[in-house]
Amino acid sequence: MTGSTVINLKNVDVFQQKHLVLSNVNLNIDKGEFVFLIGQTGSGKSSLLKIIYGDLHIGNGEGQIAGFDLKKLGNKEVPFLRRKLGIVFQDFQLLTDRTVEKNLEFVLKATGWTDKNLITERIKDVLEKVGLRSKIKKMPHELSGGEQQRVVIARALLNNPEIILADEPTGNLDPDTSEEIVMLLKQISQSGTAVLMATHDYHIIRTFPSRIIKCESGIVHEDAQIV
Ligand SMILES: Nc1ncnc2c1ncn2[C@@H]1O[C@H](COP(=O)(O)OP(=O)(O)OP(=O)(O)O)[C@@H](O)[C@H]1O
């Protein structure tokens, strides 16, 4: 493990209940890397992401995520780990009853921000990063699917995460919008945040050649190829 490692799993077995989903996982991801996570339905991608964000406990093996030791991670530490992670999942959508600004403010307040000026500045900053500064007062339903996904990415960036975990972030988007979202995630990785993106979209993978991690038959391949 090097000083720039943000995800390090060593000989980790991943269980769902008593069922061994992935065995002997070894995985190393560095600061600023952009990595695709692929594998058939049920191959264990979500389970692997759950290990990384502390939703599943590791049994055997060792894991370090953004400086947190997974072996020592109790329920009280999980929220602190999550602050180092930006999560972009399909089932983690925007609150539909409030504006973009209020969606972002809600997360900042929930994670301990109290200074009104700093909150306003941070919201403007992240919206600038995703190219949506002008949409700050809009309601989610006034935005396109791609714009909503950008707001979700902006929300993930609020606490300056070391890692973004994105589970099928382009799943509901048309091909051009999907490319824009992946371009944005790539750009974010270039500024130092590691991005791990689960996808089934081979067109996207071909368009943005990057390292590929593959879950297959209970094993994680750290440097896979697509055919
Ligand atoms: N809560 C759970 N309890 C028991 N088994 C589970 C649970 N969640 C997932 N599994 C099982 O673990 C295995 C891996 O599931 P997982 O959701 O990690 O796959 P996946 O690769 O993310 O699939 P998809 O591409 O469909 O999202 C599957 O056999 C699934 O049935």
From TrEMBL:
Tagged with keyword Protein transport: no
Superkingdom of this protein's organism: Bacteria
Gene Ontology molecular-function annotations: ATP binding; ATP hydrolysis activity; transmembrane transporter activity
InterPro entries attached to this UniProt entry: AAA+_ATPase (IPR003593), ABC_transporter-like_ATP-bd (IPR003439), ABC_transporter-like_CS (IPR017871), ABC_transpr_LolD-like (IPR015854), P-loop_NTPase (IPR027417), Sigma_54_int_dom_ATP-bd_1 (IPR025662)
Domain ABC transporter as annotated: residue spans: 7-226
A Pfam family recorded for this sequence: ABC_tran
Cellular component GO terms, alphabetical: plasma membrane
Alphabetical UniProt keywords: ATP-binding, Nucleotide-binding
Assigned protein family: Belongs to the ABC transporter superfamily.
Protein's job: Part of the ABC transporter FtsEX involved in cellular division. Important for assembly or stability of the septal ring.
Protein name: Cell division ATP-binding protein FtsE
